[in-house]
TrEMBL record:
Record field: catalytic activity: D-alanyl-D-alanine + H2O = 2 D-alanine
CDD domains tied to this protein: D-Ala-D-Ala_dipeptidase_like (cd14843)
Protein function: Catalyzes hydrolysis of the D-alanyl-D-alanine dipeptide.
Keywords recorded for this protein, A-Z: Cell wall biogenesis/degradation, Dipeptidase, Hydrolase, Metal-binding, Metalloprotease, Protease, Zinc
Annotated InterPro entries: A_A_dipeptidase, Zn_M74/Hedgehog-like
Keyword Metal-binding on entry: yes
The enzyme's E.C. designation: 3.4.13.22
Record's keyword annotation contains Iron: no
Residue(s) at site: Transition state stabilizer: R77
Name the UniProt record assigns to this protein: D-alanyl-D-alanine dipeptidase
Pfam families in UniProt: Peptidase_M15
Protein backbone atom coordinates (compact mmCIF):
# COMPACT_ATOMS: atom_id res chain seq x y z
CA UNK A 1 0.00 0.00 0.00
CA UNK A 2 1.23 3.51 -0.88
CA UNK A 3 1.94 6.04 1.87
CA UNK A 4 -1.09 8.25 2.50
CA UNK A 5 -0.08 11.90 2.59
CA UNK A 6 -2.61 13.87 4.60
CA UNK A 7 -3.66 17.44 3.79
CA UNK A 8 -2.00 18.59 7.02
CA UNK A 9 1.42 17.40 5.80
CA UNK A 10 3.84 20.37 5.76
CA UNK A 11 5.05 19.30 2.28
CA UNK A 12 1.69 20.43 0.90
CA UNK A 13 1.69 23.85 2.57
CA UNK A 14 5.22 24.35 1.21
CA UNK A 15 4.13 24.06 -2.43
CA UNK A 16 3.87 27.48 -4.08
CA UNK A 17 0.66 28.57 -5.78
CA UNK A 18 0.90 30.49 -9.04
CA UNK A 19 -2.77 31.03 -9.75
CA UNK A 20 -3.48 30.99 -13.49
CA UNK A 21 -6.57 33.17 -12.95
CA UNK A 22 -8.95 30.76 -14.65
CA UNK A 23 -12.64 31.43 -13.98
CA UNK A 24 -14.90 29.56 -11.60
CA UNK A 25 -17.76 28.29 -13.76
CA UNK A 26 -21.21 26.99 -12.85
CA UNK A 27 -21.39 23.28 -13.65
CA UNK A 28 -25.22 23.51 -13.87
CA UNK A 29 -25.02 25.74 -16.95
CA UNK A 30 -23.05 23.19 -18.94
CA UNK A 31 -25.88 20.72 -18.34
CA UNK A 32 -24.44 17.30 -19.10
CA UNK A 33 -23.32 16.35 -15.60
CA UNK A 34 -26.00 15.18 -13.15
CA UNK A 35 -26.05 17.43 -10.07
CA UNK A 36 -27.21 16.28 -6.67
CA UNK A 37 -28.79 18.98 -4.46
CA UNK A 38 -27.66 17.66 -1.08
CA UNK A 39 -24.93 20.31 -0.68
CA UNK A 40 -26.78 23.07 -2.51
CA UNK A 41 -26.53 26.55 -0.98
CA UNK A 42 -28.42 29.78 -1.69
CA UNK A 43 -25.68 31.35 -3.79
CA UNK A 44 -25.03 28.19 -5.84
CA UNK A 45 -21.38 28.26 -4.79
CA UNK A 46 -21.36 24.48 -4.37
CA UNK A 47 -21.90 24.03 -8.12
CA UNK A 48 -18.80 25.96 -9.19
CA UNK A 49 -15.46 24.63 -10.39
CA UNK A 50 -12.48 26.00 -12.24
CA UNK A 51 -13.07 25.76 -15.96
CA UNK A 52 -10.22 23.30 -16.46
CA UNK A 53 -11.63 20.95 -13.82
CA UNK A 54 -15.07 20.95 -15.46
CA UNK A 55 -13.54 20.29 -18.89
CA UNK A 56 -11.77 17.26 -17.44
CA UNK A 57 -14.94 15.95 -15.80
CA UNK A 58 -16.80 16.14 -19.09
CA UNK A 59 -14.03 14.13 -20.71
CA UNK A 60 -13.95 11.61 -17.83
CA UNK A 61 -17.67 11.01 -18.18
CA UNK A 62 -17.05 9.75 -21.72
CA UNK A 63 -14.66 7.13 -20.32
CA UNK A 64 -17.33 5.54 -18.11
CA UNK A 65 -18.99 2.27 -19.15
CA UNK A 66 -22.32 2.42 -21.01
CA UNK A 67 -25.18 3.26 -18.62
CA UNK A 68 -23.01 4.81 -15.89
CA UNK A 69 -22.72 8.56 -15.25
CA UNK A 70 -21.01 10.91 -12.83
CA UNK A 71 -23.08 12.45 -10.05
CA UNK A 72 -21.69 15.82 -8.92
CA UNK A 73 -22.15 16.43 -5.18
CA UNK A 74 -20.02 19.47 -4.30
CA UNK A 75 -17.34 21.61 -5.89
CA UNK A 76 -16.32 25.08 -4.71
CA UNK A 77 -16.52 25.85 -1.00
CA UNK A 78 -16.01 29.43 0.28
CA UNK A 79 -13.03 29.75 2.67
CA UNK A 80 -15.32 30.67 5.60
CA UNK A 81 -17.39 27.50 5.10
CA UNK A 82 -14.26 25.38 4.86
CA UNK A 83 -13.09 26.85 8.16
CA UNK A 84 -16.47 26.04 9.73
CA UNK A 85 -16.32 22.40 8.52
CA UNK A 86 -12.75 22.01 9.74
CA UNK A 87 -13.40 23.55 13.17
CA UNK A 88 -16.55 21.48 13.66
CA UNK A 89 -14.86 18.15 12.90
CA UNK A 90 -11.71 19.04 14.85
CA UNK A 91 -14.00 19.94 17.78
CA UNK A 92 -15.69 16.52 17.61
CA UNK A 93 -12.31 14.79 17.64
CA UNK A 94 -11.07 16.93 20.53
CA UNK A 95 -14.14 16.05 22.55
CA UNK A 96 -13.79 12.33 21.85
CA UNK A 97 -10.02 12.39 22.52
CA UNK A 98 -9.32 14.94 25.28
CA UNK A 99 -5.74 13.70 25.71
CA UNK A 100 -4.73 14.46 22.10
CA UNK A 101 -2.35 17.41 21.59
CA UNK A 102 -3.44 20.07 19.04
CA UNK A 103 -1.10 18.72 16.32
CA UNK A 104 -2.69 15.28 16.56
CA UNK A 105 -6.20 16.75 16.36
CA UNK A 106 -5.20 18.76 13.28
CA UNK A 107 -3.69 15.73 11.59
CA UNK A 108 -6.66 13.47 12.36
CA UNK A 109 -9.12 16.16 11.24
CA UNK A 110 -7.30 16.50 7.93
CA UNK A 111 -8.18 12.90 7.05
CA UNK A 112 -11.67 14.21 6.41
CA UNK A 113 -11.56 18.01 6.04
CA UNK A 114 -8.65 20.02 4.67
CA UNK A 115 -7.12 22.74 6.86
CA UNK A 116 -8.66 25.97 5.51
CA UNK A 117 -5.37 27.44 4.27
CA UNK A 118 -4.77 24.39 2.05
CA UNK A 119 -8.30 23.47 1.03
CA UNK A 120 -8.66 22.38 -2.61
CA UNK A 121 -12.44 23.05 -2.53
CA UNK A 122 -11.80 26.76 -1.78
CA UNK A 123 -9.64 26.92 -4.90
CA UNK A 124 -12.46 25.49 -7.06
CA UNK A 125 -10.04 22.66 -7.77
CA UNK A 126 -11.78 19.78 -6.00
CA UNK A 127 -14.98 17.92 -6.60
CA UNK A 128 -16.94 15.29 -4.69
CA UNK A 129 -18.40 12.74 -7.07
CA UNK A 130 -20.13 9.41 -7.17
CA UNK A 131 -21.65 7.21 -9.88
CA UNK A 132 -25.26 6.78 -10.95
CA UNK A 133 -27.08 4.64 -13.51
CA UNK A 134 -28.62 6.25 -16.60
CA UNK A 135 -31.93 6.60 -14.70
CA UNK A 136 -30.23 8.30 -11.75
CA UNK A 137 -29.89 5.44 -9.24
CA UNK A 138 -26.77 5.84 -7.08
CA UNK A 139 -24.38 2.90 -7.24
CA UNK A 140 -23.28 1.35 -3.96
CA UNK A 141 -19.72 2.55 -3.46
CA UNK A 142 -19.39 0.94 -0.03
CA UNK A 143 -20.14 4.08 2.01
CA UNK A 144 -22.20 7.16 1.40
CA UNK A 145 -20.39 10.25 0.12
CA UNK A 146 -18.93 12.21 3.05
CA UNK A 147 -18.89 9.26 5.46
CA UNK A 148 -16.16 10.09 7.94
CA UNK A 149 -13.46 7.62 9.07
CA UNK A 150 -15.13 7.02 12.45
CA UNK A 151 -18.64 6.29 11.23
CA UNK A 152 -17.44 4.16 8.29
CA UNK A 153 -14.73 2.33 10.27
CA UNK A 154 -12.26 3.44 7.62
CA UNK A 155 -14.37 2.19 4.68
CA UNK A 156 -14.29 5.75 3.27
CA UNK A 157 -10.61 5.20 2.42
CA UNK A 158 -10.42 4.60 -1.31
CA UNK A 159 -8.47 1.35 -0.97
CA UNK A 160 -10.30 0.11 2.14
CA UNK A 161 -10.62 -3.65 2.32
CA UNK A 162 -13.81 -3.57 4.42
CA UNK A 163 -16.03 -2.91 1.39
CA UNK A 164 -17.43 -5.64 -0.84
CA UNK A 165 -16.09 -6.53 -4.27
CA UNK A 166 -18.90 -4.75 -6.12
CA UNK A 167 -18.19 -1.44 -4.34
CA UNK A 168 -14.49 -1.93 -4.98
CA UNK A 169 -15.19 -2.43 -8.67
CA UNK A 170 -17.30 0.76 -8.83
CA UNK A 171 -14.55 2.72 -7.05
CA UNK A 172 -12.12 1.40 -9.66
CA UNK A 173 -14.41 2.55 -12.50
CA UNK A 174 -14.63 6.05 -10.98
CA UNK A 175 -10.92 6.13 -10.35
CA UNK A 176 -9.92 4.95 -13.85
CA UNK A 177 -12.05 7.59 -15.57
CA UNK A 178 -10.84 10.47 -13.38
CA UNK A 179 -7.21 9.44 -13.31
CA UNK A 180 -7.26 9.22 -17.10
CA UNK A 181 -8.03 12.95 -17.32
CA UNK A 182 -5.41 13.98 -14.76
CA UNK A 183 -7.38 14.29 -11.53
CA UNK A 184 -5.91 12.96 -8.30
CA UNK A 185 -7.75 11.34 -5.42
CA UNK A 186 -7.50 12.10 -1.72
CA UNK A 187 -6.94 8.52 -0.52
CA UNK A 188 -9.00 8.91 2.67
CA UNK A 189 -12.13 9.76 0.65
CA UNK A 190 -13.06 7.73 -2.45
CA UNK A 191 -15.31 10.58 -3.69
CA UNK A 192 -12.81 13.48 -3.47
CA UNK A 193 -10.86 14.36 -6.64
CA UNK A 194 -8.88 17.41 -7.62
CA UNK A 195 -6.81 19.05 -10.28
CA UNK A 196 -4.44 22.01 -10.16
CA UNK A 197 -4.32 22.50 -6.36
CA UNK A 198 -1.39 21.89 -4.01
CA UNK A 199 -2.37 18.30 -3.27
CA UNK A 200 -2.46 17.63 -7.01
CA UNK A 201 0.96 19.31 -7.37
CA UNK A 202 2.43 17.02 -4.71
CA UNK A 203 0.91 13.90 -6.28
CA UNK A 204 2.01 14.78 -9.81
CA UNK A 205 5.36 16.34 -8.83
CA UNK A 206 4.39 19.66 -10.41
CA UNK A 207 6.57 22.47 -9.04
CA UNK A 208 3.57 24.67 -8.22
CA UNK A 209 -0.20 24.62 -7.95
CA UNK A 210 -2.14 26.54 -10.60
CA UNK A 211 -5.31 27.09 -8.56
CA UNK A 212 -5.26 28.77 -5.13
CA UNK A 213 -8.02 29.68 -2.66
CA UNK A 214 -10.34 32.51 -3.69
CA UNK A 215 -13.74 34.03 -3.08
CA UNK A 216 -16.57 33.58 -5.55
CA UNK A 217 -17.00 36.93 -7.37
C1 LIG B 1 -15.74 17.28 4.01
C2 LIG B 1 -15.17 16.42 2.94
N1 LIG B 1 -16.15 16.01 2.02
C3 LIG B 1 -14.12 17.16 2.17
O1 LIG B 1 -14.44 18.01 1.37
N2 LIG B 1 -12.87 16.81 2.40
C4 LIG B 1 -11.77 17.36 1.68
C5 LIG B 1 -10.53 16.59 1.99
C6 LIG B 1 -11.55 18.81 1.94
O2 LIG B 1 -12.06 19.38 2.89
O3 LIG B 1 -10.77 19.37 1.16
Amino acid sequence: MHEIVLMSDPRIAAIPVVDCGEALVDVRIEGSIAIDPRRADHSGAFAHLRDGVLTRLLKAQRFLPEGVRLLFIEGYRPPALQREYFERYAGELRLANPDWPPARVREAASRYVSPPEIAPPSAGAAVDLTLVTADGRELDMGTHVNANPEESHGACYTDADNVDSEARAYRRILSDALTAVGLVNYPTEWWHWSFGDRYWALATEADHAVYGPRELP
